[in-house]
Amino acid sequence: MEDWKIIELYWARKEEALRETEIKYEKFCFGIAWNILYNREDSEECVNDTWLAAWNAIPPERPSFFSSFLGRLTRNFAIDCFRKKSAGKRVDRHMADIVGELEKIETTVSHSPEDNVLEKDLVKIINQFLDTLKSWDRDIFIRRYWYMDPVKKIAKRHGYSESKVKSSLFRSRRKLLEHLRRNGYE
User: Fold this and answer.
1) Contact 44/34 with Cβ under 8 angstroms?
2) Residues 103 and 145 sit within 8 Å (Cβ to Cβ)
3) Is the N end or the C end of the chain the one with fewer CB atoms within 10 Å?
């Protein structure tokens, strides 16, 4: 079923919306949660939380890109779950690597809650940056930092060595940092 039809079902408050969402997006959302948590039960719980959150958000929200909307919800639930599970424990190496890779960028863009108005501007700036990357560099960057894919999986996806993927990520992070600074983020 097409996304706009599923969204119309949500607006009509028909439970069929949840079934259609699950049919079309369960594997996609589970994959996002799995890449963060590496735990079946926790990943399934995040996906179920995603369905409930979508039900509660639509209406009044009418997402332009339904898959991105669901992916963002799932990702946020999975990151929250990861934080709760890893509080005071040794952190999973995969997630620790991603956090370490993004440390400088996070410091550059971090802002106070009063600055939340700037979030849309930041999204626009990051999207402009992504448009400057070659298609494979953009895919590598998004697979790593949105989908949280391991470097090994990204390398296999592109037929590259892991070192080539790591080099691409390093160059892209450096370019993003420069792009953010040119746009007023220090």
Assistant:
1) no
2) no
3) C
